[in-house]
Each structure stands twice: as structure tokens, then as C-alpha cells.
Design goal:
The complex is a heterodimer of chains A (about 325) and B (about 525). Helix content of chain A is about 80%, strand content about 0%. Chain A is mostly helical. Chain A has 2 domains: about 70 residues, no CATH class; about 210 residues, MetI-like (MetI-like fold, Orthogonal Bundle). In chain B, a hairpin with a 5-residue loop joins strand 2 and strand 3. In chain B, helix 10 packs antiparallel against helix 12. The chains are: A mainly alpha (about 325), B alpha+beta (about 525).
Chain lengths: ~325, ~525
């Protein structure tokens, strides 16, 4: 197992190298000059050229890359072109809202989607099953921001139960934190619930036709025990795989959800950085997302062994 | 099943209520009257001399004070200055500061601070640079008196020091003002009516300002940016909220108090809400502009530029972008209708198109039908529809147009390129300016015609520069007005650029928020929250 973890951790290096080169080149090849953005609307060409020089953007592209990657290897992610802060500081400031949103979404989505997926499989063809499948199709099809606006209209504007937007840090006021997490988490959960419930239903349906389920029923076990102990556990591996892959959806969704709900997280930072061509920030945030994605999927792989003892690394 | 449904509903409602109860009043609300304001864009740069961004200018007006300021009648009035005098030969200006002016750290504001601040501003701002061309030296006479000694009389000394919009000559402590003008300042110590709270502010989330209880406002009533700056709330929070629909939702539910300028298509929603009021805080409004690239074909030919201007009609742009006539004005004056330099002479251009004239001029110029590259910004909503109007009008005038859509940041990068249009350069693009920046031929950067040093498009016209210099030297208002008119007409003779109409973007406020002053900048003093 330790060998497997070590091998997977080492495998992160080429992944991150490819991501780093790709992101760096893409940013330099797409149109947009941070110096022109920084200089503002009334700046002259000379002023823009001066800023380019100061930011080191006149250096050859490979020199810029070598300087950046050298700094990253020393733990220095550079300074934001715009915020006058180091990128590490910026990320530290913005990580809490994103982490909170992702955690709330994941907890809510898994706790809703797995039971309804199992129940839909158990009652295949019933009205409940059809409703779950219809919800799954809708959840995939409707963009997150539309769901967000609908929830805001109902719960914030019409009913006045929840705030429209904003974020309160968990350490400042836990109640206000929860209040402001409800709508963004619900919004981001919809697509995730659709995905997981559908996969859960399909996996459990497949398992329910296995001989050992028939044996369990023949032994007189209750439906609950058959479903939870025998069916769900054996269906867990594909479900976990989808949850791992869904982290990418979560990261992409956070960008939109944070912008709609005014959450000052990494998703919004990414949008702001892209719009202002803040190269050091974009590069670091994308690298960080890549690390998170790879590590979470490693954890998912490890967790397979808990649900299926036949899996050995 | 029914019981299960009820339990779930009760659980959900309970959780939401519990969250609501636990939330209680926020610490900010407990501290007194808090004004929550949403601007058009994020405040990322805090140095109002280093950048021309309007959000940074607004921040500057909270934290810093100015020597002079423009009142609601567009007249320049003393602000930090108590009294000033001019020598008979108009070359020595002596300024004396008001008593009791203090920086936020408690130190007194001195003449040396003001000199350093003007000098730093004079290295960045268009009017500042022009003023510095005429300055021989600055002299600190005593702690609160200084002299500005000119090489020759200059007609825009007060207009420069009271410049209302970016870059505003804000006063800073000498140590801060001595920062290289091309580097951002680190300190936010000013002498204005609010104090920036660096520890509480989080870029991308909110910026916090507390009332400066030691600030000594002028005795006069507030008027525009001039007069007594009395802070009537304890705390101002600039909330960073990128989604305009959410800004409107938050204002309707009372989570915020003011929106700087909601988009025109959302104004009907705000008008319909009885708890919200619209406020046209900037009576001068904004103005659309079209720029031609003088360096590359075909707009290197004045006849082609004039052909384009003969195809323009302001009202088409205003209808397509603003829509509601309540919020726009067809205005032939480059220096803004209703202001001292306004003139309605445009040689018949901009108001009513003459497509036949346009075609005739193109024929005379030998235009070969090569499509011109028109850059369209798709991310600044107010500009998005300007380019399609231009495309339509120019095509009616005999041009072939290649409209290329891009985000604003790509456009601002591409407009710096001087290459031919088919090699990554450009021919035409649109922008807009706050009218307060366009009131005279010096502050209005679009009139500069000094080639490489001019604004994008790089017009070269020695005659225009001569006229602008004459305007800058002129101290008689009547003669200055005549020169401004000559400058406007000269721009129409050479087809330097086009001004495409004035428009207004009202702000929105909660009904319990009053006292929003009419000025070119959204200012937070004088605002009360009941």
C-alpha cells in the first residue's frame, strides 16, 4: 500500500509539470497584456511599455518560465500583478470560502444522492424512480447559475429566509456562516446529486441481480440489511469513482457559484485573475487545483480497499 | 410517507431558522451606522495616482483630501486651501492651508506634503504633466503656505489642482508622496473624512473605512466635490459583488445600501420597488468616443476619417446602448453640453449622417474597399452595442467593415499595437469617458495630437497642439472658450476622433439612505442612513 501511495505521489510530478507548462504557454499565447490592464484607460503607450519592463514581461518566454518555475520550486509563487500581495497570501485569504462551499456541497450531495439512488434502484420503475431520473436529467441540463437565481428568488427575495449573497467567515459568526452557505451549496449540489444518484442507481441495480443478494434474501435478511450491507457496499466502488471525478465539476461549478453568490473564494479569484490577466495568480491557482484533484483521487483509490477487500495495491 | 415529508420540512425550516437566530446582528452593525456600497468593479489598486481606475479614484475621495474641488456648478473652489493669491504678472501662486488639517496618524498637514503630492501627481496625470511644463519651482514659505512659481502665465492652475476625476491630485504625507510615481504606494494615510481599515479590508470581499472623527470640514454647505465634507455614517463598507443581478437583489432585500451604477436594463426592476430610489448623482454623465488609428491605412488619410464621421449619428448609438431617452442626450459639444466650453459646431457631423458625402470622400481618398478592422468589446455591457452601430453606419457610408469581437482586456491590449490592421493591429474602436474628464482640451486626453505621446490612435496635428497650448496659456475665460471652440472645429477638420453622445447612469439607493451629493464622483460624505 505504501509503495502504491509513494508511486502515485511521484506520478504527480509529471502531471504538474505538464499542467505548469501548458498553463504558462496558454497564458502567454492568448491575447491580453497585464501591463495594459494595470496601466488603465488613460495610459500612454510609453507608460504601458514601462510597466511591461517592470513586470519582466519583455523577457523571452522561456526565460520567464525558468524564473517562475525556479521560484515555485523554492515555494515562492510570486506576487500578484494587481493585489500587491504574494499569491500565497491571496490564496490563503480566499481558500476558506471555497473549502467551506466544497465541503458543504459534498456532504449535502452525498447524503442526498446515495439514499435516493439506492431507493430508486430498489423501487425500479416506480414513480419515485422516475422522479429521481427526471431530476437527474434536469440537474445535468440546467446551468448552475439558473438554479442559483431561482433559489435566490424563492428563498431570499420572496420568502426572505436567507441572504442573497455574501460570506461570513466561520470564526466570526457560525450562524451567519451557515445562513450564507445554504443557497450556494444547494445550487452547486444539484448537478452533483444528479450525477451521483444516477450512478448509484445503476450500480445498485446491477448488484441487486447478483446471486449473493438472492442468497441474502433467501436467508431471511431484511430489505434494509440487504440494501445497505450487501448491495450498497458492493456498488460503492463506481460511486466513489464518480465522486472523485466529480471534484472537477465541483471546482468548475465553484467558479460560477462563487461569482453569483459573491463568495470571495478561489473560484472568483480565478475569474478576476483571468479577466485582469494576472498571470502569477492564474498559474498558481490552476496548479493548486491540479494538486487537489490528483490527491483527492488518490484518496478515493485508497478508499476502494475499505469497501472492497479484494482490491490490493 | 406524509409523516416523513413533514419531518423533513420541519427539519429544513428548523435548520434555516436556527442559522438565522444564531446569526444575530453582525459586529459591524453593532458599531453604529454602516453604509454598504457596491461599485462598478473591484478595488484592487489603492494608489489613485498610479492608476486612472475610477474605483480607485472613489477610494481616494474617501481617504484623501484635495487642495481645490469642483462644486455642483462646475466651478473650482478651495478645499484644503484657506486662501490663495496670484501675483500681478500671474506667475506666482501662493496657497495657504486651512488651520487644523491633520493626517490620519495625527501629524499636521504641511506645505511640504502638498508640494510632494503635486509633484508626484504631475508625473502621471495628463493635466499634471501639462501644468509641470509651466512650473519653474515650488517654494514652501512656512508650515502651511507654499508657492507655485510659473515660467509664464498658465490658465489652468486651479482647474488642474481641482481636477475632479482621474487622476485626482490627492494630498498625501510627504514620505508617501515621495514614492516613485511609477510604483504603488504602501500607506493609506490621508487626511480625508474616512480612514481606511487595512486589517479589516479583504480585496475581493470588502474594503472598510471608519469615520475620521478628527476631520475638520469646511464651514460651507456641501456642493459637488466642494464644501463641507461631513461624514454622517460611522462606517463605509465597499462590498465587492461582481454579479450585477445580485447587486440589484441585494439592494432590494436591504443587504446593501447603494449601487454606484446599475445597468440600464435592470433599472425597471429597481424603479418598481418602493424601498429603492434611483439617484442621478452624476449630472454630467458620460460620453461615448470613437477612435481611429492614424498610423495605418485607411485612416491615415484624413478624408477617410471624415468619411467615417459623416456617417455617424449620435442618436443611433444612444438608442442602441442606453435605450431610454430619459438617460441620454444628443450633444454636439465635445466639452460636454451645459459646461463653459460647450459649443454646438461640428461642421455638420455626428448629429445627422450624410452617407452620400461619406461615399464621395471615400472616392476622393481612393479607398480600395479593404475591410477596416473594428474592435468590439463584449464584456463591458455599455459598449457592446456601439460597434454593431458603427458597422451598420459605416457600411451605409461605403466602407467594408470587419467587426472583431473580444473581451475588453484583449481590446485594451490590442489597441496598443501600431501594426497594420491585418497584422494584429486595428482601425477603429469605441470607449467612453466620465464627462468630468472631458471638460477642457487639456483634461480631455482624446484631443491630444502629439503623435506617439497622444492617446491610442496616435494623431499627429501640430496645429491642434498649438491651439491646445494657446488654450492652456489663456487666462481670460471668454478667449479660452473661443479657443475651445476652435479646437473642437479643428478636430472635425482633421477627423481626429468622434464624440457620440452623452448618457447618464443613475445610482440606486435604499429609500432610507439620503443625502447622495450630485458630483462627477460617487462620494460618501453627507450621506445619511435613517
Amino acid at each position: 500500500m505504501l509503495d502504491f501511495i509513494a508511486r502515485r505521489l511521484v506520478a504527480i510530478i509529471p502531471v504538474l509539470t505538464v499542467v505548469a507548462v501548458f498553463v504558462f504557454l496558454m497564458l502567454r499565447l492568448t491575447p491580453g497584456d497585464p501591463a495594459a490592464v494595470i496601466a488603465g484607460d488613460n495610459a500612454t503607450s510609453d507608460q504601458i511599455a514601462d510597466i511591461r519592463e517592470k513586470l519582466g514581461l519583455n523577457e523571452p518566454i522561456w526565460t520567464q518560465f525558468a524564473i517562475w518555475i525556479g521560484n515555485v520550486l523554492q515555494g515562492n509563487f510570486g506576487e500578484s500583478f494587481f493585489f500587491k500581495k504574494t499569491v500565497a497570501e491571496l490564496i490563503a485569504q480566499r481558500v476558506e470560502p471555497t473549502l467551506a462551499l466544497a465541503t458543504c456541497t459534498l456532504l449535502f450531495a452525498v447524503s442526498v444522492s446515495v439514499p435516493i439512488g439506492v431507493l430508486a434502484a430498489y423501487r425500479q420503475g416506480s414513480l419515485f424512480d422516475r422522479l429521481v431520473m427526471a431530476f437527474a436529467v434536469m440537474g445535468f441540463s440546467v446551468p448552475g447559475f439558473v438554479i442559483g437565481y431561482c433559489l435566490i428568488y424563492i428563498f431570499a427575495i420572496e420568502l426572505g429566509w436567507l441572504p442573497v449573497q455574501g460570506y461570513t467567515r466561520i470564526g466570526v459568526n457560525f450562524g451567519a456562516f451557515l445562513e450564507r452557505m445554504v443557497l450556494p451549496s444547494l445550487t452547486l449540489s444539484v448537478g452533483f446529486i444528479a450525477l451521483i444518484s444516477r450512478i448509484t442507481r445503476a450500480s445498485v441495480l446491477e448488484v441487486l441481480n447478483e446471486d449473493y443478494i438472492r442468497t441474502a434474501r433467501a436467508k431471511g435478511l431484511s430489505n434494509r440489511v440487504v440494501l445497505m450491507r450487501h448491495a450498497l457496499r458492493n456498488a460503492a466502488v463506481p460511486i466513489l469513482t464518480v465522486i472523485g471525478l466529480g471534484i472537477a465539476i465541483l471546482i468548475g461549478g465553484a467558479v460560477v457559484t462563487e461569482s453569483v453568490f459573491g463568495l470571495p473564494g478561489l473560484g472568483r479569484l480565478t475569474v478576476e485573475a483571468v479577466l485582469s490577466r494576472d498571470f502569477p495568480t492564474i498559474q498558481t491557482v490552476i496548479l493548486m487545483f491540479s494538486v487537489v484533484y490528483v490527491v483527492i483521487n488518490l484518496l478515493i483509490d485508497i478508499s476502494y480497499t475499505i469497501f472492497d477487500p479484494r482490491i490490493r495495491y | 410517507m406524509k409523516t416523513m415529508r413533514r419531518s423533513f420540512a420541519a427539519l429544513a425550516a428548523g435548520a434555516i431558522m436556527a442559522a438565522g437566530l444564531a446569526a444575530g446582528p453582525s459586529p459591524a452593525l453593532a458599531q453604529g451606522k454602516v453604509l454598504k456600497f457596491v461599485q462598478n468593479g473591484n478595488l484592487t489598486i489603492l494608489d489613485p495616482i498610479w492608476t486612472t481606475a475610477y474605483v480607485t479614484r472613489n477610494h481616494g475621495y474617501l481617504v484623501y483630501d484635495t487642495l481645490f474641488a469642483m462644486d455642483e456648478n462646475n466651478a473650482i473652489k478651495p478645499q484644503m486651501v484657506d486662501k490663495y493669491e496670484v501675483s500681478p504678472d500671474k506667475t506666482v501662486w501662493t496657497f495657504t492651508l486651512r488651520d487644523g488639517l491633520e493626517w490620519h496618524d495625527g501629524k499636521p498637514v504641511t506645505a511640504e506634503d502638498c508640494i510632494a503630492s503635486i509633484q508626484r501627481w504631475g508625473k502621471r496625470d495628463t493635466m499634471g504633466l501639462k501644468l509641470m511644463d509651466f512650473v519653474k519651482e515650488f517654494k514652501a514659505v512656512d508650515g502651511k503656505t507654499f508657492q507655485l512659481v510659473l515660467k509664464e502665465p498658465y490658465g489652468l492652475v486651479l482647474d488642474s489642482l481641482g481636477k475632479p476625476s482621474s487622476n485626482v491630485p490627492f494630498m498625501m504625507p510627504k514620505a508617501v508622496a515621495e514614492t516613485d510615481a511609477f510604483k504603488q504606494i504602501d500607506s493609506q494615510v490621508g487626511s480625508g473624512p474616512f480612514i481606511y481599515q487595512k486589517n479589516e479590508s479583504k480585496p475581493g470581499e470588502r474594503h472598510v473605512y471608519l469615520k475620521n472623527s478628527k476631520y475638520k470640514p469646511r464651514a460651507e454647505a456641501p456642493s459637488g466635490l466642494a464644501g463641507g465634507k461631513v461624514a454622517k455614517v460611522d462606517r463605509v463598507e465597499i462590498i465587492e459583488m461582481p454579479d450585477v443581478q445580485q447587486q440589484v437583489n441585494a439592494l432590494i432585500t436591504g443587504e446593501i445600501d447603494l449601487i454606484e451604477q446599475p445597468p440600464h436594463d435592470l433599472l425597471p426592476i429597481l424603479k418598481a420597488d418602493k424601498n429603492v430610489a434611483l439617484e442621478n448623482w452624476n449630472p454630467l454623465g458620460q460620453v461615448f468616443v470613437i477612435r481611429f488609428n492614424w498610423l495605418v491605412k485607411p485612416f491615415d488619410n484624413p478624408k477617410v476619417r471624415l468619411a467615417a464621421l459623416h456617417a455617424m449619428r449620435q442618436e443611433d448609438y444612444l438608442k442602441a446602448t442606453i435605450g431610454d431617452p430619459e438617460y441620454y442626450k444628443v450633444c454636439p459639444a465635445a466639452f460636454i453640453c451645459g459646461t463653459p466650453n460647450a459649443s454646438d459646431k461640428t461642421n455638420g457631423m455626428l448629429i445627422k449622417p450624410d452617407f452620400e458625402k461619406s461615399k464621395a470622400l471615400l472616392k476622393e481618398a481612393g479607398y480600395d474597399g479593404t475591410p477596416i478592422v473594428l474592435m468590439q468589446s463584449t464584456t463591458l455591457p455599455v459598449l457592446t452595442n456601439t460597434a454593431p452601430v458603427t458597422k451598420s453606419l459605416l457600411e451605409q457610408g461605403g466602407f467594408k467593415v470587419d467587426m472583431q469581437s473580444m473581451d475588453w482586456q484583449t481590446l485594451v491590449t490590442r489597441r496598443t499595437k501600431k501594426d497594420p490592421a491585418n497584422q494584429g493591429g486595428w482601425n477603429v474602436f469605441h470607449t467612453f469617458s466620465v464627462s468630468a474628464d472631458a471638460l477642457n482640451p487639456i483634461s480631455n486626453a482624446y484631443f491630444a495630437a502629439n503623435g506617439d505621446k497622444a492617446w491610442f490612435g496616435w494623431p499627429t496635428d501640430p496645429e491642434m497642439e498649438k491651439l491646445r497650448d494657446s488654450y492652456a496659456r489663456e487666462t481670460d475665460p471668454a478667449k479660452a472658450k473661443a479657443l475651445a471652440e476652435a479646437i473642437q472645429l479643428r478636430a472635425m477638420e482633421t477627423g481626429q476622433f468622434g464624440w457620440l453622445g452623452q448618457w447618464y447612469g443613475p445610482g440606486a439607493r435604499r429609500a432610507n439612505v439620503t443625502g447622495w451629493l450630485k458630483a462627477p464622483v460617487p462620494v460618501m460624505w453627507n450621506i445619511e442612513k435613517k
